[in-house]
Design goal:
- The complex is a heterodimer of chains A (342) and B (336).
- Chain A is built from twelve helices and twelve strands.
- Chain A has 342 residues and is of the alpha/beta class.
- Chain A has an eight-stranded mixed sheet, with helices on both faces. Chain A has a four-stranded antiparallel sheet with strand order 2-1-4-5, with helices on one face.
- Chain B is α/β, with parallel strands linked by helices.
- In chain B, the strands form two sheets. An eight-stranded mixed sheet of chain B has the order 6-7-8-3-9-10-12-11, sandwiched between helices. A four-stranded antiparallel sheet of chain B has the order 2-1-4-5.
- In chain B, helix 5 packs parallel to helix 6.
- Classes of the chains: A alpha/beta (342), B alpha/beta (336).
- At the A-B interface, helix 8, helix 9, helix 10 and helix 11 of A face helix 6, helix 7, helix 8 and helix 9 of B.
């Protein structure tokens, strides 16, 4: 087990439901994970699997028609622990945590920045509310933050509006805002999906640097297994509101055991494997969230479906770090052992 | 087998005017495509890769004259070797060639008209090209829907009833219904989830086999191009910087830009981790491209010559295959 003191945030059996049109969407349905200091946890999954809702729940940024039904979000700050789910959404305590202790980078930098305020103003807002710096110091700090992010001529750029920034620079400005108060936890919700690969590489380099220098715990939400292989220390694979497989990057990528994880890995072409690689699409499409399958959510698309899959499988711990939610994991997992022994 | 061209592009340029001021004077040009020479052969899949803003979509549209090229020639070569220069044709003379050259658009959500049923949207091109009986049109569209693994009855539904992957398949049916020879796939799979993306990729390959199609596959995702394409052209700031067999692009990369691009792609394989080459800065503005080699301000290997002289696309040989690249710093002997 990991050392308790190293855990920055632990989420236990979290359930977030949405209520619209008299129907209930169980967007996050019993999710548990721990985030360690100075480590990156990647949450992977297709669109609609609940990965962004998990992030929004941790930040208490849920829309009005949704609520946390059950579960705990425990944030460890120094020696104290705070139960985030019990705090009032807009209460003083939550506002103190949001932005200073836990910060977030949003997916689309075009919409997440306010077009009528300068970038400098938006960075300094954070510093104004969470630190005791005076105006001059705040400005200096904003400039140095932009400088750290590799934005050229930060003294000039700080007074410019978001429209004069390019996509990559906007995302860097977003990261500057998030990092302004040296947060303990950084939640990045698809930070590079809208960006080109060369810019993506720049952003990754930056995030790695921040992680090493500040010992920040990062929760990275992505749909790209390639990004997971590059950045993750730990991985959680989500499907329809559940974590179906979790473990270290080594566990999940080298010994993917859940049929969904395997299918995800097999469905994308991998660079460098040439034209003759096999890609196997997952049959069907993700189910309607209001009309979910009973039992294992992946069962209708799974090649190994049997009657036992009509009951939701429990989480099983395969080894110290690797856990899985599948009835039939043994037969998959044994194959890896056989391979290793032979 | 002899390789026969289907399209020949010569010095194609697409400039968009930038207007400013009270009198709306033209103050400059966005050089979206700046002199592209390219041959597309019958039956191949040619990948066109590059970052956003490098002009790959504009080039794809210029081929179909959805944007008018400012300069240059696009020549269509028919199966009987008749050559027709498309850019100088009158608009209405273009029609018979529109039938042969089709496009699948990037965004499946905005490329279907929401107020028409699928049949309503798809029957127009058939009407235009002389399929006059409604029964026949329904049959053609129904057959094609089945070919892309959808039900025949779906043609009477509206676009909002379909998921992204299904809409993209309808977009493919739209391109296929006139029995084209070349399809330009403009980021056809980029907007889809990974599991759906694989379905559409396999479908495209199957259709190519069944109908003897040629694809120009425009994408920013190099792992998809490697899987799908026979040859790949890498574009940067409106120009082709490297053109070669897809295997050679990964094994014998010549241009430093392609090298950086490949290294930047995250690979879902822990054993294949390579050092990222991180390029500095952004793509320069195509209104005012840098002098000399357009890539030199970001190039880690740039020398003095790169700042002044524009490199041309030269022919080399790697692995016994033709390999074109435009860089001053390549050590291989040039082939004439």
């Amino acid at each position: 087990m990991t050392d308790k003191n190293n855990i920055a945030l632990s989420v236990k059996n979290l359930k977030t439901f949405f209520y619209t049109n008299n129907r209930c969407n169980k967007a996050v349905n019993g999710v548990s994970f721990d985030v360690e200091k100075g480590k990156t946890l990647c949450i992977v999954g297709e669109s609609g699997c609940g990965k962004s809702v998990t992030a929004a729940t941790i930040m208490q940024l849920l829309p009005t028609l949704s609520r946390i039904e059950e579960g705990e979000i425990i944030f460890r700050k120094d020696d104290k622990t705070v139960n985030i789910e019990k705090l009032e959404k807009n209460g003083k305590e939550m506002r103190n945590i949001r932005g200073s202790d836990i910060a977030m980078i949003f997916q689309d930098p075009m919409t997440a920045l306010n077009p009528v305020y300068t970038v400098g103003f938006q960075i300094s807002e954070n510093l104004k509310y969470h630190t005791n710096l005076n105006r001059k110091e705040i400005r200096e700090k904003s400039i140095s933050l932009l400088n750290d992010m590799g934005i050229p001529l930060p003294e000039k750029r700080v007074d410019e509006y978001p429209h004069s920034y390019s996509g990559g620079m906007r995302q860097r400005a977003m990261i500057a805002m998030a990092m302004a108060c040296n947060p303990k936890i950084l939640i990045a919700d698809e930070p590079t999906t809208a960006l080109d690969v060369t810019i993506q590489a720049q952003i990754f380099e930056l995030m790695e640097k921040l992680k090493e220098e500040n010992d920040t715990a990062i929760i990275l939400i992505t749909h790209d297994m390639g990004v997971v292989a590059e950045l993750a220390d730990n991985v959680a694979v989500m499907y329809m509101g559940n974590i179906v497989e979790a473990g270290t990057a080594d566990d999940v990528l080298r010994r993917p055991t859940h049929p969904y994880t395997k299918a995800l890995l097999e469905s994308v072409p991998v660079l460098g494997r040439g034209k003759n690689q096999d890609i196997n699409p997952i049959k069907g499409s993700t189910p309607d969230p209001y009309n979910r399958p009973v039992g294992c959510q992946f069962a209708p698309r799974c090649n190994w479906q049997t009657e036992s899959c009509d009951v939701m499988p429990e989480i099983t711990q395969i080894n110290k770090t690797h856990q899985i939610r599948c009835h039939k994991y043994e037969q998959f997992f044994e194959k890896y052992d056989e391979k290793r022994n032979s | 087998m002899m390789k026969k061209e289907i399209l020949k592009l010569r010095d194609v340029k697409v400039y968009f005017p930038v207007k400013a001021g009270v009198f709306n004077r033209t103050v400059g040009h966005v050089m979206a495509v700046d002199g592209v020479d390219l041959d597309i052969y019958r039956g191949e899949v040619l990948g066109l890769a590059g970052e956003s803003g490098c002009g790959k979509t504009t080039l794809g549209k210029a081929i179909l004259r959805l944007v008018e090229p400012t300069n240059g020639e696009v020549t269509y070569v028919s199966k009987e070797d008749d050559e027709t220069e498309l850019t100088s044709l009158e608009k209405k003379d273009m029609d018979p060639f529109r039938k042969k050259l089709q496009i699948v658009f990037q965004d499946p959500h905005s490329s279907l008209n929401p107020s028409f049923t699928i049949f309503g949207s798809l029957q127009d091109p058939l009407k235009k090209f002389g399929v006059n009986s409604k029964e026949e049109r329904r049959k053609i569209i129904g057959d094609l829907l089945e070919a892309v693994n959808m039900r025949r009855e779906y043609m009477d539904r509206y676009p909002h009833e379909f998921s992204g992957g299904q809409r993209q398949r309808i977009g493919i049916v739209r391109a296929l219904c006139l029995d084209p020879e070349l399809i330009v796939c403009d980021e056809a799979v980029s907007a889809l989830d990974v599991s759906i993306q694989a379905q559409v990729l396999q479908l495209l390959m199957q259709l190519k086999k069944d109908n003897n199609l040629t694809y120009l596959f425009i994408t920013h995702d190099l792992s998809v191009t490697e899987y799908l394409c026979d040859r790949i052209a890498v574009m940067y700031l409106g120009r082709i910087v490297e053109l070669c067999d897809s295997e050679d692009l990964y094994k014998n990369t010549l241009h430093p830009y392609s090298e950086a691009l490949i290294s930047a792609i995250p690979v879902a394989d822990l054993d294949k981790k390579t050092k990222r080459i991180v390029l500095e800065g952004d793509v320069p503005s195509p209104v005012n491209p840098p002098k000399g080699c357009p890539f030199h301000p970001r190039c880690p290997k740039a020398k003095d010559v790169c700042k002044t002289e524009v490199p041309t696309l030269k022919k080399y040989s790697t692995n016994g295959n033709e390999h074109y690249a435009s860089c001053h710093l390549i050590d291989l002997p040039e082939i004439s």
